[in-house]
Write a structure and sequence with these properties.
The chain is built from 10 helices and 8 strands. By secondary structure, it is α/β, with parallel strands linked by helices. The model has no long low-confidence stretch (mean pLDDT 96). It binds NADP nicotinamide-adenine-dinucleotide phosphate (NAP).
């Protein structure tokens, strides 16, 4: 299989390297900024193209650009017979209709960062296809890249994506805020690291619901009020602390 990659960011980097590892040829890389496209094409033993009209000889086009850039790229991409897939959690598959005869989605449900390798075999790949033969094509490709392949429609994928924002993006942001709070109060942010590690290690052994601890879980209103007072000069953190405490309290109605 020969793949043309459109994009040279986080997702393109991970798909490109996973394909290289799986023996799938990325034979062309297109990117808006040539320097990033050339760099990625070199890593993948591929050829950089600076014009979407140069796409040829591919069995698949993998579109891995920012969600907001997808419509613009699609406008510039000539309609053709090469199957076309995007990699977004939140963009409907039907956006590709009319741009290619067959199309689909391969959404990697993981937080991917350019140049930071991970075990792609463990990344859930969430698939959708326009028709049965594209479904077989994409399924075969996905099974070469990952041991976790799931077919779902655009609505289910969008809900999965939203759950990833809650679990990954928001917890990551809370850690950023917690470390800043320590630094502002002349304490070392690294003091949090063992707790952060144990939080995520514990989730391998038990359900998040059961692992919940803290004043809100214990309905210790005195401590909650005290913490809210301590955050008087930080309205963003105070608001988040209050909202999340209320949510935890509501989630454990009996104790
Ligand atoms: N990163 C993740 O964790 C992750 C996980 C699952 C799915 N995804 C999905 O993967 C896709 C790419 O995300 P990413 O994280 O790889 O993004 P990214 O690292 O920010 O890379 C964005 C890519 O889009 C290109 N681009 C941006 N605006 C453009 C425009 N107006 N015209 C043409 N190209 C443009 C960039 O080109 P330049 O280099 O020229 O700026 C770059 O190649 C998105 O649909 C995202 O939802 C991401």
């Amino acid at each position: 299989m020969q793949v043309t990659l459109i994009g040279a960011g986080n997702t393109a980097w991970h798909f490109g390297h996973a394909m290289l590892k799986a023996g799938i040829t990325v034979h062309q890389v297109f990117n808006r900024r040539p320097e990033r496209g050339i760099a990625l094409s070199r890593e993948l033993n591929s050829r950089y193209i600076g014009d979407l009209n140069e796409i040829s000889g591919s069995d698949l086009i993998l579109l891995a650009v920012s969600d907001s850039a997808i419509p613009d790229i699609l406008r510039k991409l000539a309609a053709h017979d090469i199957p076309l897939v995007h990699t977004s959690g939140s963009v409907e598959m039907m956006i590709l209709k009319g741009c290619a005869t067959s199309y689909g989605v391969i959404y990697p449900f993981q937080s991917l960062t350019y140049g930071i390798p991970l075990d792609f075999k463990r990344v859930p790949l969430c698939m959708e296809a326009s028709d049965p033969s594209t479904s077989v094509l994409l399924g075969n490709l996905a099974h070469k890249l990952s041991d976790s392949v799931h077919f779902m429609d655009s609505g289910q994928r969008q809900k999965l994506h939203l759950s990833g924002i809650l679990a990954n993006n928001f917890s990551n942001h809370l850690i950023t805020l917690a470390k800043s709070f320590l630094r502002e109060n002349k304490l070392d942010g690294k003091l949090l690291d063992p707790m952060i590690e144990e939080t995520f290690e514990k989730l391998k052994r038990t359900e998040a619901y059961l692992a919940q601890t803290g004043p809100a879980r214990r309905k210790d209103m005195g401590t909650i009020e005290k913490h809210l007072d301590m955050l008087d000069n930080n309205p963003v953190l105070k608001n988040l602390y209050g909202m999340l405490s209320d949510s935890i309290i509501a989630h454990y109605p009996n104790k």
